[in-house]
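Tutorial handout. Part one gives the primary structure; part two gives the three-dimensional structure as tokens.
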Amino acid sequence: MLARSAMDIELLVRWAYRDELIKRQISSADGIWDRITLGLGRDSGQHTATAAQRYPHFGEPHPDAERIERAIVELPNVAIDWPNRGRAIMGDLFGLLDAHAALSIGTFAAPAWVIQHASMGTRPRWQMEDPRCYSTPAARGPGVMIIGECRGHNLYSTGSHCPLRWEPSIVSIAEARAEYVVWHDALVALAQALTGNLERYEPVGPAASPDPWRHPDKPMVILASSVERSLKPLPLKYPRPAPRRRLRA
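Part two.
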């Protein structure tokens, strides 16, 4: 038995969806045509007879890719446990996220997130601008909204206040970070479920930071190439010699 190659689970899932499972749509292998006749995919029950043109040299998807697909489909939907994980996700902004707003975020479909970002080769976009606080403008006039009773010039009843608004909103920041956490937790669960169950690869990682807003990922190291230094950039317009005119007799 050949030794398995270690691969980061994020890259492994991308390999499955971008290089292997796509063969169902573009390959003309006999096994794929048999499944097309039945109108079903091998495992997920998806219809695959949708391609307009097929090629004989792609073959069938690798069995490891199909095992990865089955493991992803079995991932459960996730709801963030805000009382226990909210402070780690939101940091100093956690005090601004009230309980009703947290409950409105709802449940995330972990399989859909993993498949989407694996197919596109991306990660959930959690980065947002730092929120800024603004006063709520009044419904009429140039002033600000005041909740309470005005009893004279600069004299208001106890508890009067001006409601504040944040841009971007605290809920949108919480939702974006929660999506990243669900995606990362799903990769961790996949790596554990697939360990020792693949033929070619052994999943490791993920190397992506579980909370990049607190612990950023390490920057990529780009190695310089001596070949690239010797290359000269091509001109945008290549100079052509002027055409010669024929002399008349």
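Part three, for discussion. The longest strand covers residues 5-8. The two ends are 83 Å apart (CA to CA).
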